[in-house]
Design a protein that fits this description.
By secondary structure, the chain is of the alpha+beta class. It folds into 2 domains: 59 residues, no CATH class; 105 residues, PH-domain like (Roll), CATH 2.30.29. It is built from 6 helices and 8 strands; from the N terminus they run E-H-H-H-E-E-E-E-H-H-E-E-H-E. It has a 4-stranded antiparallel β-sheet, with helices on one face. The chain has a 4-stranded mixed β-sheet with strand order 7-6-5-8, with no helix packed on it.
Length: 208
Amino acid sequence: MLCPDCKISAPGGTLCPSCGKPIPEEERFGGQGGHYLRVFLSIGIGLLFVAIGVTSLGIGVPVRLVRAYEQGSLWPYGVILAVPSLIGIYYWLILREEEITITDEYIARRSHWGNQQLRWDQVRSYHVHSLGAGLRNLRDMGRFSRYLSRERVEWQLPVLAYDLEGPPSRGDEALMRLEPGTIDDLPWLLELIEEHVGPPKEAKPELF
């Protein structure tokens, strides 16, 4: 494991040889569902204010809202707020179960798409590659994820996926794909993985 402060490698449960702080025995990472929910709610509220402001030019917001209420035409404002909010709720629902656990012995993933676990001595390769237009697991809404994930909003990281490949005898279960936009605090997660298996190699281009 790594010391969160010094980034020095040491066994989990021991003290950091540099700062003397305890080294975590495990690190857990959740999904980004809450992030997307906040982002899309903010987009919906922003669009709502813009729509109200544009339609209130010349008469003022209070007058416009009163007239819309009297005429039964408030529903377009509700649609403007509801559409982004529903997208955010969709992301939250499918990513709320996302969790990755790392210890000195293994990496485990619990998610909407199934549970996986690989011991570090089972990892045969570690590759990085581009996901193109969007994220594979998030399907049709992957294009939103490309621009609104925490990696792009907060860290300005490129849209890259990371594949840990285990024993071939386990088939599809042996491939653990770590996608940006689905996992929180990706930079720290990648540092912990590299501490066990080294830096990723470039994968051959793949069509999605």
